[in-house]
Amino acid sequence: MAAVLAAGRGSACADSPLGYWGGAVSHRSAAVLWGLLPDRDGAIHVIVPGVGGRAKRSGVRVHRSRSLERSQVALRRGIPLTTPARTIADLRLAISADSGAATSHRELRRVIRQANVLGLPLEEADARDRTRSDLETAFLLLCRRSRLPRPEVNVRVGPFLVDFLWREARLVAETDSYLYHRGRAAFQDDRARDLELMRIGFRVLRLSERQVVEDPRRVAETLAAALSGRRPIGREASSGR
Q1: CATH top-level class for 134-238?
Q2: Residues 6+ apart with CB under 8 A from 54
Q3: Whole-model pTM?
Q4: Are 7 and 62 in contact (CB under 8 A)?
Q5: Running DSSP on this structure, what letter comes out for residue 57?
Q6: pLDDT digits (tens, 9 = 90+) for 225-235
Q7: Of 188, 141, 194, nearest in space to 172 by CA
Q8: Which contacts (CB < 8 Å, 24+ apart) does range 61-68 have?
Q9: Per-domain residue ranges for the chain?
Q10: Which class for 136: exposed (0-12), middle (13-18), buried (19 or more C-beta within 10 A)?
Q11: DSSP class of residue 152?
């Protein structure tokens, strides 16, 4: 909020599309505030309408836009920020223009996928993307090439959002990358989640990125066996090692 006030307050006026603040958190900073990207050190990105806004401020990156409309700004935790759809549009434009928006193509894909998972309103083309990561995309490709039944993707089972679900077989598959599942807290959370899913009658197969990418045949054989009920999932297959 301090960055918004520092950068945008000078442009605020009665007919400003952003009202009192005259600016809104945008670009990567808006994606972080929506919970679509992890936070990291760096300047806070703020967008202001027209050519207004104050001069450059330390720690704040100001973007000026003649197309910004009030409908493209929301409030989150009391802070004005661009809507998910506008955030994605700004990131896409900044990447294509190589304007130093501090976001990569890979991060943009993650923003779109995570916004879909959270059910945030998006443009129609972006709303079609239902996978949260490149790892999940690789997993779906593995299933297709192995002629396995296509699972439901990113759906709720009880209180949890699971990566993949074969509902009739009551089988859940979770794909974990080291980047987003490392550390003691993540390890404990994953095990507590698996235990609760098993308690309510679902089998859980947890797969690592290395297994999906480097050993797809073994993963496919394990999935096929689990779906057919030929044998239980073994410790090694479900441990993610």
Answers
A1: alpha beta
A2: 6, 7, 8, 9, 10, 11, 62
A3: 0.54
A4: yes
A5: B
A6: 999 876 544 44
A7: 194
A8: 61/27, 62/7, 62/8, 62/23, 63/26, 63/27, 63/90, 68/17, 68/18, 68/24
A9: 2-127, 134-238
A10: buried
A11: E
